[in-house]
Amino acid sequence: MNSLKQKLKKLHQILKDSKGVVIAFSGGVDSSLLLKIAQEELKRDKVLAVTACSPLYPAREIKSARRFTETWGMRHIFIKSNELQNRNFIKNAPNRCYLCKKNLFAHLRKIARSNHLAWMMDGTNFDDLSDYRPGRRAAQELNVRSPLAEVGLTKKEIRKIAKDLGLPNYDKPSLACLASRIPYGIKITQVLLQRIEKAENSLRDLGFNQVRVRDHQEIARIEIEKGEMKKLLQKNKFQQIISKLKELGYRYVTLDLEGYYTGSLNPITNPNIKNTN
To answer: Which residues face 49 on adjacent strands?
Structure first.
């Protein structure tokens, strides 16, 4: 097994050899690290961060992505990805992520070609390969590379490297698009996405770190880290949460006692898919 030092050396070499790259930049720690290494290995005009803007992505995350690239002096553009105009996407079938990523990577390919940049890359890490990720097929079809996964970097290792490099978001919670809070088969609408975003913002404003509000129509199923559950008893926070979420139209507000875990809605579609804590 390669050491962390060896993995990092390989990552630097991949970026150096790329000669030029467009990076799908969400503002999370994975794509931030990839972008920072690219900045170190390539000239400024050979690196371009691209962030998709749509109702699928919380506004606070878009602002965070902008702050990151401005701080480090990186080239960065924003595009409108318009997933809600795709009838097949809003049906919310299990291949939803594939349709979303196919649209995003098609945009990236046009941008790469117009800027004469040889490669498209994303921040998929090695741990992601064991999760249910239909978007990976879109990446393979459009020749999008995932260097972090290629060199075997796990999330824990990525956070360590990011911290060593002084990246301010090294401990930022993982984030998936807001559509991932909606059970498959329930139509995705802008109104529904906005409700989820407001619900999660209300929890973050109360000091909760890793947050998901899974939307089961009348029911809001809250997922937070198990270690943060005791916060609910502090200063009557649970009552504030109930009041806010009911204002947003939820009839029932529940706490998932299993805590936060990625892909918690996947087993509803396929019980053979393993959840990862």
So the answer is: 23, 76
Whole-angstrom Cα Rg for the chain: 19
CA distance 205 to 208: 7
- Per-residue confidence (pLDDT) for residue 160, from 0 to 100: 97
Flag whether pLDDT at 269 surpasses 70.
no
- Which string of DSSP letters, residue by residue, matches 148-211? HHHTT--HHHHHHHHHHTT-TTTTPPP---GGGGS-TTSPP-HHHHHHHHHHHHHHHHTT-SSE
Residue that the structure tokens 């097949």 belong to = 88
pLDDT level of residue 277 (50, 70, 90 thresholds): very low
Rounded CA separation 222/214 (Å): 6
What does pTM read for this prediction?
A: 0.90
- The pair of three-digit structure tokens given for residue 140, joined into one six-digit string: 């393979």
Residue 121 has pLDDT above 70, yes or no: yes
Residue in 183, 188, 192, 196 with CA at minimum distance from that of residue 268: 183
Residue 116 sits at φ, ψ, to 5 deg, of 55, 45
Q: How far is CA 277 from the centre of its chain?
A: 16
Element (H, E) at 31: helix 29-41
Under DSSP, the state recorded for 19 is S
Please answer whether residues 166 and 45 qualify as being in contact, where contact means their C-beta atoms are separated by less than 8 angstroms: no
